[in-house]
Design goal:
The protein is α/β, with parallel strands linked by helices. It has helices at about 10-30, 45-60, 75-85, 105-115, 125-130, 140-150, 170-180, 200-205, 255-260, 275-290, and strands at about 5, 35-40, 65-70, 95, 160-165, 190-195, 210, 230-235, 235-240, 250, 265. Helix 7 (about 170-180) links the parallel strand 5 (about 160-165) and strand 6 (about 190-195).
């Protein structure tokens, strides 16, 4: 019996339609459209593609967006000044620094420079800290999208063993916090592993819910999971494939075919977590415009 698919693309369309309807109501009351300010450093093709996808999503739901492009030679001081400008701009609701930044810039310094009330990526220590103690905050978009997906498919976390492979500040660590909190979206026994964990299978095979976000194609195989597990594959890597027109295919951190044979639910790559991440960014930008989380 094969796994059922957690269709992130379909669900993201529903979330975006809901945001678009809310934006229409918001502007219908005489408010200006929400505005997302993106700051892009350098000419990284992947970053460009992500920014274009986010800009298109903004356009689709009625959110204004602008991309401020800087050369990869920009200094940390200059970048901080750009961020400060948008912090003080009343017409800007959300600020997004497209990661990664060049090596000479410390990403946490730039994230901390963003006004936490405009931090729609949910990476600022203020938002992370508030999330960890259960206070209202902007939650990182990928973990928020995963929670939305679990809710939509009525997959309960209470009392389950959730194993997160990957401990990044963007996905793994906040995912662990959310799943372990004493609220309706948590109450799971949570284990955080990473690519250096000894005998990773010992942990993954015990998981009721397995979330993998490492960026190592095919890291998790069918032999490493138990029957009926819920698998969320966050990884997405270009792997050479000369049988395709583009010369590559997009692959997740799980060996999809072997894992899907045993899983109860699984996200596809692409079409799983990725679209949900962008949809939750739209949701956070609207919340920022409404001052829903941090009222003035």
């Amino acid at each position: 019996m094969g796994a059922s698919i957690l269709d992130g693309k379909m669900l993201a369309e529903k979330v975006r339609a809901s945001v678009a309807a809310d934006v229409k109501v918001w502007t219908g009351k005489g408010n200006r459209p929400p505005k997302l300010q993106v700051v892009l450093i350098g000419e990284n093709p992947a970053s460009n593609a992500y920014v274009n996808a986010k800009s298109k999503a903004c356009e689709d739901v009625g959110i204004d967006t602008h991309t401020h492009t800087l050369p990869d030679t920009v200094s940390e001081k200059e970048l901080t000044e750009v961020v400060s400008h948008y912090n003080n701009d009343d017409a800007t609701d959300g600020i997004l620094i497209q990661l990664p930044v060049p090596e000479h810039i410390h990403p946490l310094s730039i994230i901390e420079a963003i006004d936490h009330r405009k931090d729609v990526d949910g990476f600022h220590p203020m938002n992370v800290g508030r999330m960890s103690v259960g206070q209202p905050c902007f939650r990182p978009c990928t973990p928020a999208g995963i929670v939305e997906m679990l809710d939509h498919y009525s997959i309960t976390t209470k009392g389950k063993h959730a194993v997160v492979v990957g401990a990044s500040n963007i996905v793994g660590s906040p995912m662990g916090i959310i799943l372990s909190r004493e609220n309706s979206q948590g109450k799971a026994t949570t284990t955080i592993c990473h690519k250096f964990t000894k005998d990773l299978t010992k942990h993954t095979i015990d998981a009721d819910i397995l979330i993998v976000a490492v960026g190592l194609p095919g890291l998790i195989t069918g032999q490493m999971v138990k029957e009926g597990v819920v698998v969320i594959d966050v990884g997405i890597t270009r792997v050479a494939d000369h049988t395709t027109e583009k010369g590559y295919k997009l692959t997740g951190d799980c060996d999809f075919d072997s894992v899907a044979e045993k899983a109860g639910w699984i996200t596809p790559v692409p079409g799983g977590v990725g679209p949900m991440t962008v949809a939750m960014l739209m949701k956070n930008t609207l919340l920022a415009a409404k001052r829903s989380i941090y009222p003035e």
